[in-house]
Write a structure and sequence with these properties.
Keywords: Phosphoprotein. This is Response regulator receiver protein. The protein is α/β, with parallel strands linked by helices and about 140 residues long. It has one domain: 3-Layer(aba) Sandwich (Rossmann fold). A 5-stranded parallel sheet has the order 2-1-3-4-5, sandwiched between helices. Helix 4 links the parallel strand 4 and strand 5. Helix 1 crosses helix 5. The two termini are about 15 Å apart.
Length: about 140
């Protein structure tokens, strides 16, 4: 039984760019309105937010900007890898950078993929669909 107000499936997004937040949120909403996207503007706050979550309300997916303040997306993934309770949650790093070094670093840490941020609305829909494909139903 789900309580009122808690019926949406949860995606956590670590992103400090409000435009990217809104574009991804709108794309996910258009694809499947049963998803709730919670945006956290920096890596340290992202980790602290996760630490407050109980096992019953864990996110189904984590999307992290490579270059967010305080802790980068990669640093967040390193911290989460040290905590077993987050191991089964798919993690995706996304960035404006196409750096093969950033991608290799991210994949080495076990993220599902490193995605270059789209630069047009149609591509946001395609990217959001791809991200959602990593969620276990």
């Amino acid at each position: 039984m789900q309580l009122s107000g808690h019926s949406k499936r949860l995606i956590l997004l670590a992103e400090d760019d409000i435009d990217d937040q809104e574009l991804l949120e709108n794309a996910i909403e258009e694809i499947d309105p049963t998803w709730q996207l919670v945006c956290i503007p920096n890596g340290r706050k992202f980790v602290k937010y996760l630490d407050t979550m109980g096992e019953s309300n864990m996110p189904a997916l984590m999307i992290l900007d490579y270059n967010i303040p305080e802790l980068t997306g990669v640093e967040v993934v390193k911290e989460l890898n040290d905590q077993g309770r987050f191991m089964d949650i798919p993690k995706i790093i996304w960035s404006t950078s196409t750096s093969p070094v950033f991608k290799a670093k991210s994949i080495e840490l076990g993220v599902k993929d490193y995605i270059t941020k789209p630069n047009d609305l149609a591509s946001f829909l395609t990217t959001a669909r791809y991200m959602l494909s990593f969620v276990k139903e």
